[in-house]
Amino acid sequence: MIKVIEVSSDTNIGGAGKCLITLLENFDYTRYDVSVVLPKNSLLKEHIEKLGIRVTEIDGMADKSLDMGAVWKLKRVFDAQKPDIVHTHGSMSARIAGRLSGAKVVYTRHSVFPPSPKISKGVGKVINGMVNNSLADGIIAVAEAAKDNLTDTGINPKKIRVILNGVDGLKEVSESEKDDIRKRFGIIDEKVVSIVARLEDIKGHKYFIEAADTVLKKGVNAKFFIAGTGSYEGELKKFVKALKRDKDIIFTGFIKDVDKLMSITNVQVNASYGTEATSLALLEGMSIGIPAVVSDFGGNPGVIKDGVNGFIFPQKNAKALSEKLLKVLSDDDVYQTLSRGAREVFKTTFTAKAMTENTQDLYDDVMGGLI
Question: Are residues 184 and 147 in the same domain?
Fold first, then answer.
């Protein structure tokens, strides 16, 4: 049996945390002995312990990749538990500690964003590559774009394996349940377009709002929902108010049961232009047949195939986004084709089972010296 310690530095539950929980829900525990290390007061702890997985908490490393004080605390944990593999999710500290403890080290690159010239050019690239290559036996990139980010900073492509995110999929709900959910969100007979993302500038909500305004001006009977919270919320609300679209573009805030909103969503949007790997919200929507219109940034084109399960538009281009939305919302034949495509692409590529099995294969290859 291979002993694995999963390490996350997250105190909140973001995309990386959700991926970790999905892995823990699906590992083959007849072959892998898995435990988790978290910073104190992480919201992940409750979810992980409900699965019967042992959690060790340490001081430090909270929401930080590198915390030298945490390195030695992590090393003490690893020395005591003696894992074969330390798999880190956003923690350089754990990579260093894993190496010092003699474990094999795997880490996952969960994000996609343009690397700084300091580590992608010249001497900086060489040094970054040497450091990161020495601190990992295997590296998981959650999108081809994430792999490109890594190789652009000097990391050996032979160490990298692209393992796409996967989810269990959403539960289908009955039409009567949908009617109740529509009442909750104030929907009568309108089409529903949703964007589920942190309210930060780089997530492109401004372009979503501009496109929504254009679509509504064309006479489409629709409501546009913005789910989530973030530092850009105030600016976005001012923008919507200035357009006099308060009744048509609705901020839901944080929704614990976002799957309810998804169950009545006709089209999902992802307008990111600064960071995006494999959006879990897109995958969940696809699992119940929701097509998406997404920017051409990061991992989005790896999830949405233009004309198959949605459409792709050039990032920061509200006009192009509105044109794609009009096409999906106004042509039922197009909509049905994309909806069927969404279900099919999800089943063949983005299930939790596929992600977990590919991760386990990587563990086996690392232990066998095949990477």
Answer: no
> Tokens in use for 154?
């000097």
Distance of alpha carbon 349 from alpha carbon 164, whole angstroms: 8
d(CA 279, CA 309): 14
| pLDDT, average across residues 217-239 | 96
Cα(238)–Cα(22) distance, rounded to whole angstroms?
37
List the domain range (segments joined by +) for residue 82.
2-167+351-367
**Predicted model pTM:** 0.85
Q: What is the CATH number of the domain that holds 235?
A: 3.40.50.2000
Place of tokens 């343009």: 114
138 and 279 share one domain: no
Write out pLDDT tens, residues 325-364: 999 999 999 999 999 999 999 999 999 999 999 999 999 9
161 and 266 share one domain:
no
* Same domain, residue pair 152 and 205: no
> Are 293 and 145 members of one domain?
no
Once rounded to an integer, what is the mean pLDDT over residues 297-326? 96
Same domain, 322 and 216: yes
Phi and psi at residue 248, in whole multiples of 5°? -105, -30
* Residue range 275-291: mean pLDDT, rounded: 92
What is the number of structural domains in the chain? 2
